[in-house]
Amino acid sequence: MFFKKNNLFKSSTNISVSSEITPKRISISEKNLDILQEMNRSKMISRLTNQVEETAVVADGLIASTKGINHSIEEQMEIIDNVVDEITSYSSLAEEVFTSIESSKEIAEKTVENANEGTNAVGNVLGSMDEIENVVNDVRKSVNELFEKSKNIDDLLNIIKGIATSTNLLSLNAAIEAAHAGAAGKGFAVVAGEVKMLADRSMESVAHIDNILNEIKQSIGNTSDLMLSAIDKVNDGKQISEATKQVFETIIDSARENLNVSSEISTAISRQTDSLESVIFSTQKMSQSFSQLIKTVELTILNTELTSTALSRLNNISTSIQGSQKLISSNDLSSEVSESLVLKCCEPYGLSIVDPMISSDLVDSSTLYNIHGTLINIDINGKVSPGIAKFWHVKDDQLTWEFQIRKGIKFHNGDVLTAADVKFSYERLLSKALDANSAWILMDIEGANEYHKGQVKSVDGIKVVNSHTLTIKLTSPYTGFLLNLGQPASAVISARAFEKESQLSGCGPYKLTKNSNDEMILQAFDECYSGAPYIPKVKISTNDANRVQRVIDGELDFIRIEDGMSYQAAKKANLEIQQLDMLSVYYLGFNFKSNHPAVHSKLVRQAVNLAINKDQIVKEVLMNYGSIAASPLPPSMLEDSHISPYPHNIQRAKELIRASGVSNLTLNLYTRDDGGNGLFKRTEKLVVEDLKAAGFNINLHSIPSAEFIRTRAYEKSDVFISRWTADTGDQDNFLRPNLTKDSNDNFCAYHNPEVVQLLEDAKQMVNPTKRAKMYNELAEIIHEDAPWAFLFHPKNGIAHKKNIGGANLNAISIIRYDQFFIKNI
After folding, report:
1. What confidence category does residue 566 fall into, taking pLDDT thresholds of 50, 70 and 90?
2. Whose CA is closest to 160, among 221, 204, 128, 120?
């Protein structure tokens, strides 16, 4: 939320107060005291009547919701019965599948057996082929040897041919010599002729043998070729057989794998069947439980109807008491006592803005919250409660919310409030012309973004059903949406008064009658829908210096306690004190719009976190009235977080600065001037000392608190000291304004896509456990990225005089003045 109010104790730190206070009292008669007490009782009864009426409406809504639950349970019973039937059928089917898988296992086992036999047969074939190959190779070897030996016969034939030729020549010579011998040589001629005939026959035999040998050689050649072809065929057969063997092996592997899978499926289905039987048993028990639940819901409906009836009777009695009681007003008191019926408090300055929709400061928003009404209120525990709307519910789509608006609510100018005023107010907050920082709180409504950009003339998600019924449809389920409707910026104003008279007419318990530099005055609006305030006037001093002493002196009735010094002083003065942990964080922010390299170096940002001694700030500035911050989110917003604050380590800070390579260490630091003893001023002093010790040069710019936001002074800085307080107790509401690119409240202009995506995911997460883990993760990412130097989370409280009752303060520092009452004077 907005920058918080000036948190300070402006008097000297050495405060002297008495341990016992004797409140200043006005001497009044018993009659006037009785009248004062009767006035308080009368207004309490009026408020009680309103509360009873609200409770009765809630009871009626509870009856409707319970009947809806009953109807849903009956439908669920039918679904469960159907589920039981389906599961039973599935169980039978599982048994059939189990049987089929068992058969499949047998087939797979047979397949493995047959494939093994096939593999063995192929192995035998391969063995036989190896033997054939060996035999063929041996025969081929013998044939080759025969071929070589046939070559020897050729040599012999050649010898015979030579002998025959020589014999033939010899016979020729013999014939010639016989012719020379004449008659004496006739016998020798006969012999020569025979020799020639023998030689011729030898030549013929050699020729015949040569022909036979050539045929034998040719046959041997053919045989060798056939044997080579046979060997090739055997090799082809071996390859085919090897491939066949591999196929059989693959079949065996697949069959075995199928067998294993079938066994696993069989086992799983067997277990599944057992589980299904357990599910059937559990579902049947669930059915019995739902039957019992239906009976319980029916009894709850009966009891709720009885409660509604009792509340109706109580409302009648309360109304009767209210009607029979004398109307008591301040006119019945003496003028001296009447003038004392004023609640006196203080703020550091007056209203800078009177428009609740554009307010970004706690002083403004806290005051305006008492002037304007909201559709839903946020109580002191941070929970939603009825406001202008007396009842609401979400429809089945989990996106559309329907609000029932109280009848007869009046604005301060007398106008009667209707659903159209609510729609008008929300569209004004979202309008492009207003450009309100807080417009984001309604951006989850369907059509809000388009309207804000000026693309459409109306927000489609806001529908006026009738004068007292309004529906709001969201773009996605969001659990924190209702809390957004209770923020000061979601105030409802009179549409007619604003459009016709330019007036911001509200319907809250008080009207603003004075707003000056010295004080603000609020006058009670007795026709307020929540009941007339107990105290008719509130005076707010716009100076909170010496505030504890001023309560002691009777100048103030109550004050805020936001630091340890004020707390110790109030405790010593024996004032009544209420305190709680604030949903707030103080930080030193890095302006990412600055061009300074130190701002854009994560190492330097981490170094700044290490350089600042937060423990010293908590002890000396807060006097332990707060805790050291480890991330933006207060500890109460994180579940089981183990994030530790950055330790104070100047040496390590210097090492990171050197590692970053950034040499320019001169920074422009902008702070809020809340006086020499103010919380910001004292924090600033220690921060500057620590940064200088780490090697930074600081140019300090101190801006008056009331001007810091209005002038957007932080945009001129490299670093600035600021704070942020929750509008609601929702984590998304706390983080989104500071971390999303287009938010006017993102004073650092920090943008991390990972953070933005996680914000979106967490926002839409319905499961609360997972949602909490997401915000823990977000806190860790931001802690490591260090867009801030996380300083501390403060406490908050109220200190008041003992004659004041109804003091209240919630975790976001809103105080409802209409809850206070004066016990005595």
Report:
1. confident
2. 204
Alpha carbons 743 and 439: distance in angstroms, whole number:
9
DSSP 367-382: HHHTTSEESEEE-TTS
Collapsing DSSP states into helix, strand and coil, what is residue 13?
coil
Query: Is 297 found in the same domain as 213?
Result: yes
Residue 693 resides in a domain: yes
pLDDT of residue 4: 41
Cβ neighbours of 235 (radius 10 Å) = 12
| Residues 455-482: tens digit of each pLDDT | 999 999 999 999 999 999 999 888 778 8
Which of 760, 672, 35 minimizes the C-alpha distance to 331? 35
Residue 3 banded pLDDT, cuts 50, 70, 90:
very low
CATH number, domain with residue 205: 1.10.287.950
Range of the domain at 119: 71-310
Q: Is 362 helix (H, G, I), strand (E, B) or coil?
A: helix
What 125-128 contacts at long range (C-beta under 8 Å, 24+ apart), as own/partner pairs, is: 125/237, 125/241, 126/238, 126/241, 126/242, 126/245
Q: Is position 352 within any domain?
A: no
Question: Where are the alpha helices (H) located in 665-767, listed in sequence order?
Answer: 679-693, 705-708, 731-739, 753-764
User: Which tokens sit at 383?
Assistant: 């929970």
Domain boundary among 451, 469, 503: 503
Please give the Cα distance from 353 to 747 (Å, whole number): 20
**DSSP helix/strand/coil, 443:** coil
> Minimum mean pLDDT among 17-21, 299-303, 566-570: which range?
17-21
Give the lowest-confidence range in 21-35, 245-259, 390-404, 528-542. 21-35
Give the DSSP letter of residue 765: -
User: What sign does the dihedral 692-697-702-708 (CA atoms) show?
Assistant: negative
Q: 239 and 101 share a domain? A: yes
Shared-domain flag, residues 414 and 278: no
- Say if 519 falls within a structural domain: no
Residue 282 within any structural domain of the chain? yes
404, 410, 416, 422: CA torsion to nearest 10: -50
Do both 259 and 168 map to the same domain?
yes
Phi first, then psi: give them for residue 663, nearest 5 degrees.
-105, -25
Long-range contacts formed by 258-261: CB under 8 A, 24+ apart = 258/104, 258/108, 259/105, 259/108, 259/109, 259/112
Domain count, the chain: 3
Same domain (yes/no): 297, 411: no
For tokens 């994560």, name the residue: 602
**According to the model, what pLDDT value does residue 323 have?**
53
Q: Say if residues 400 and 386 touch (Cβ distance below 8 Å).
A: no
Residues 6+ apart with CB under 8 A from 76: 290
Q: Are strands 376-378 and 821-822 parallel, antiparallel or unpaired?
A: unpaired
Q: In the listed set 454, 477, 503, which residue is the last one of a domain according to the structure?
A: 503
Phi, psi of 800 (to 5 degrees): -145, 165
DSSP secondary structure letters along 488-540: GGGEE--HHHHHHH------SSEEEEEE-SSEEEEEE-TT-TT---SSSEEEE
Pair 596, 737 in one domain = yes
Identify the pLDDT of residue 107: 64
Are 302 and 398 in the same domain? Answer: no
| CATH number for the domain that contains residue 498 | 3.90.76.10
